[in-house]
Structures are given as structure tokens and as C-alpha cells.
Specification:
Layout: H1 2-40, E1 71-74, H2 83-88, E2 90-93, E3 96-99, E4 103-106, E5 114-116, E6 121-129, E7 133-139, E8 144-154, E9 161-162, E10 167-171, E11 184-190, E12 193-195
Antiparallel strand pairs: 1-4, 2-3, 4-11, 5-10, 6-7, 6-9, 7-8, 8-10, 8-11, 11-12
Amino acid sequence: MKNKIVDVVFKKFQSYSFIIFLALIVVAFIIIAQLNRSEDAPVDTQPKNTQPTNQPADEVFKLPIDAESPQVARNFWHSELSTEEQYQAIIKVGNTFRHNTGIDYTIDKETEFNVLASLSGTVSKVNQDSLLGYVVEIEHLDGIKTSYSSLGSVDVAVGDKVKQGDILGKAGSNNFDQASGVHVHFEVLKGAIKLNPNELIGMKISEINYE
């Protein structure tokens, strides 16, 4: 009788052991998958707090260049320009032609000058591009960004809080628009939309009509 009881208990133990073994395999597989997913996840190197809290609400857009008589080497392209002006606002890159999506400011296409922050905000991007030179982007209130490219050198880093008029770097030339010489290519963005800087200089962000 004892042997029969032992046999029944042993058989039940064997069946439960198999189920437990399968459960352990499943748990181990889930843990390994989670570890691999964590290792493969991209590392976020951008600062978490880039909210431009230092920007006055009544601050207005200013030119990114401090000069008595800044020149426009290349204007922002839009359909309301004359035919001649539209042609001037087109950049030839190799065998392709591209509309200028910002304004290229210069002194005389040869003189180096300081590039200034058009608005107060937080530096969200600094990198060196083989075509555009150094590029600096600044985040502002209401989802606005300003972008400054064709810089020969930079004096800021990602995460820096800058005030309007602070020096971001020195203007230089680039391989994308060599005809503009020494200049800064200035863009204003609202999301993916590139706004016409000509319409913004002297305006508050709250006054901008994005339609």
C-alpha cells in the first residue's frame, strides 16, 4: 500500500515538475528578451530640460547680426517675389536648384562677424555639417525654433540658456551656398514649417499668425 502511494506521489511530482520546468523556461526567455531590448535601445543624449524659461513674453525678433548696414546675400524664397527676386533666392547645388528657406545675412561677403541669438531661449542643437558648416538651433516659446548655419566657429553648447543678442559664434562660408561668401543662414521654424524671417523681425511670438 505504501509503495502504491509513493508511486502516485512520485508520478504527480514528475508531472508538476515538468510544468514548473516549462514555466521557468518561459520566465527566463522573457527576462533575456527584456535585457536585449534595453541594450539595443538608443541612448538619449539630449538634455531633458530644454524649456526656454528665460525668454520674456514680450521679446521681439531681432536680426542675428550686429551691423549698421547688414546685407542680404540671399533672400527667403516665396511666390510673391518678382521673377528676378525669385531667381536670386534659388541656390544651385551641383545640378539641382533649391529654394532658399531662410535669409543669408552678410556684411560684404568677405568680413567675419559675430552671429547673435535673435531671441532668448535654450540651445537644442550644435553640430558641424560638411555642407552647411556649424549649425546652432535654439528653442523658444510656443514651439518656435531659430536656426543659424554657415558658422565658422561656435561659442555655445547644447543645453545653454542664451539671451537675445548673445554671441553664438562667428559667421563663415560653406559648401552649400558658396556664392553668399561669409554669411549666416538664418531660419525660423514652427514645427516643420519654415517661416519667412522678413515678416517676423520686430514682432513678438504671440503676434505671429501661423496660418
